[in-house]
Design a protein that fits this description.
The chain is an alpha/beta fold. Helices cover 44% and strands 14% of the residues. The protein is built from 9 helices and 10 strands. The strands form 2 sheets. A 7-stranded mixed β-sheet has the order 3-2-1-4-7-9-10. The chain has a 3-stranded antiparallel β-sheet with strand order 5-6-8. Helix 4 (76-104) crosses helix 5 (122-133).
Length: 287
């Protein structure tokens, strides 16, 4: 898994690449044997790399896709060759997919606009890079994005592009969204069946604040992270534990620390989703 994690790949893509290698090296002769090998490898990925929403969803999507292709009338050998060819092309397709998404957003980013982003998203980076190349004048407000300070990484990438950037703490979002921000762009770890998203912790509260100030909250996501999951609230998310705990210096030993990695943003707070399948309203996702 780690060998496929690079600056141009997100967690789901790294999962796909890792499981593709397992599939390529498999000596299984039946669909059921392939399923068992992939599920075993998927459990290992989750155990060794932390069972985040992105990794868990990526594993489930990959295994489901492989099973759908192999469970055809073409025969096991023929289906396996076709699937391997498709999986080998996937890595090259991701760059094209992000460019397609970026092209869909062009008319939404206007000169002198201020965009707030949260977390580190390669799709959002592609959108901002594309806008800068089109000579759009805009600035970006980046949240700190604790718990892993993904905002610091985002700021460095934007600075390399020459895009004016402002860094704020997570607790200052409402203060700046009230007047300074024109729109919000976030990525997603997965898009769920009702048009909502699961993404980095803090996304939900930003969406609520944006909604209250009538500021558009946009999501940029690849179609391959669309899932059949249908959460109704935060409690319906998979239990991802409290990995990489926050610094707890000076807290009493009896204090319980809650430190979730992801949250669920319901569809009513999302204005539009920009995908490689086009620009979608949340209701169109479930259609």
């Amino acid at each position: 898994f780690r060998q496929f994690t690079d600056p141009d790949s997100n967690a789901a893509e790294a999962v796909f690449q890792a499981l593709t290698e397992v599939f390529k090296q498999s000596e299984a002769t039946t669909t059921m044997q392939v399923k068992e090998e992939l599920e075993e490898a998927a459990e290992l990925l989750k155990t060794e790399n932390g069972s985040t929403v992105a990794i868990t969803s990526g594993c489930d999507l990959f295994v489901g896709h492989v099973m759908n292709v192999l469970n055809t009338d073409e025969g096991f050998s023929s289906s396996k060759r076709k699937l391997l060819d498709r999986l080998e092309r996937f890595k090259k397709m991701t760059v094209i997919i992000r460019l397609e998404i970026a092209n869909h957003t062009e008319r939404f980013i206007t000169d002198d606009s201020t965009i707030l982003v949260h977390g580190f998203s390669r799709v959002v980076l592609a959108i901002l890079r594309n806008a800068a190349k089109k000579n759009k004048r805009f600035k970006v407000i980046v949240t700190e994005s604790r718990r892993d300070q993904a905002g610091v990484r985002m700021v460095k990438e934007l600075d390399d592009m020459g895009i004016p950037t402002i860094f704020i703490t997570d607790c200052a979002v409402a203060h700046y969204l009230a007047q300074e921000v024109d729109m919000v762009f976030v990525g997603a770890e997965m898009v769920v069946e009702n048009g909502g998203i699961v993404n980095k912790i803090g996304t939900y509260q930003i969406a609520i604040i944006a909604h209250s100030f009538n500021k558009p909250f946009y999501v940029a996501a690849e179609s391959y992270i669309f899932t059949r999951v249908y959460p109704l609230n935060q409690q319906d998310l998979p239990d991802m534990g409290t990995q990489a705990p926050l610094a707890t210096d000076n807290l009493p030993a009896s204090t319980e620390v809650w430190n979730s990695s992801s949250d669920y943003t319901p569809p009513q707070y999302i204005r539009l989703l920009f995908t490689d399948q086009g620009v979608l309203t949340p209701s169109a996702v479930s259609d």
